[in-house]
Amino acid sequence: MAIMTSLPIIPKGIQTVDDARLAVKNGVKAIYLSNHGGRQLDTTPSSLEVALEIYNEEPEIFKQVEVYADGGVRYGADVLKLLALGVRAVGMGRPFMYANMYGTEGVERAIEIAKHEIAIDAANLGVGDLKAIGPQYVNWKSTNVWFS
Ligand SMILES: Cc1cc2nc3c(=O)[nH]c(=O)nc-3n(C[C@H](O)[C@H](O)[C@H](O)COP(=O)(O)O)c2cc1C
C-alpha cells in the first residue's frame, strides 16, 4: 500500500493486546487505547482493562511505542491508574464537552479540577513526580475475600 503521509500514524481504538502487537509490528509510533467512550458497542473493554491486559501479557509494548488511552476517565485516580501501567497520555472527552455548557470558563474550571485531583491523589500516594509512578502503586489483584 502506498504511504500517503509522512506524519506519524497513531491507530485509535486498540481493544486487545493482539491488536496492540499488530500495530507495533507494522511500525506505528504510538497506539491509542479506546472504546470511543463506550458509545459504539456495549460491553467493549475499557482502556484500563486493555492497558492491564497489555501489562500482563506483553509489557514491553509500553517501551516500544507510546501508549495513549481514553474512555470513562473522570477522576484523578483514573488518570493515575493508567499512568501507573505505563500509559503516557490520558484523554478525556465528555467531561470537557459537558463543561463547555459554561463556555471557556467551564472548560478551564474542568481542567483546574482534573489537575487538582491528579496532584492530590499523587501526593496521597507519595508520588512527587508523575514520571516516577509505576505499577507498584496499585494493587491489580482482586481484594474480594468474600467470593474467593
Ligand atoms: C459526541 C461524541 C462524538 C465522538 N465521535 C468520535 C469519532 O467520530 N471518532 C472517534 O474516534 N471517537 C469519537 N468519539 C470518542 C472520543 O474521541 C473519545 O474517545 C471519548 O469521548 C473518550 O471517552 P469519554 O467521553 O468517556 O472521556 C466521540 C465522542 C463523543 C462524546
TrEMBL record:
Keyword Oxidoreductase belongs to the record: yes
Keyword terms, alphabetized: Oxidoreductase
SUPFAM superfamilies: FMN-linked oxidoreductases
Keyword Chloroplast: no
Residue stretches making up the FMN hydroxy acid dehydrogenase domain: 1-143
Cofactor(s) listed in the protein's UniProt record: FMN
Listed GO MF terms: oxidoreductase activity
Designated name of the protein: FMN-linked oxidoreductase
Any Pfam family matching the protein: FMN_dh
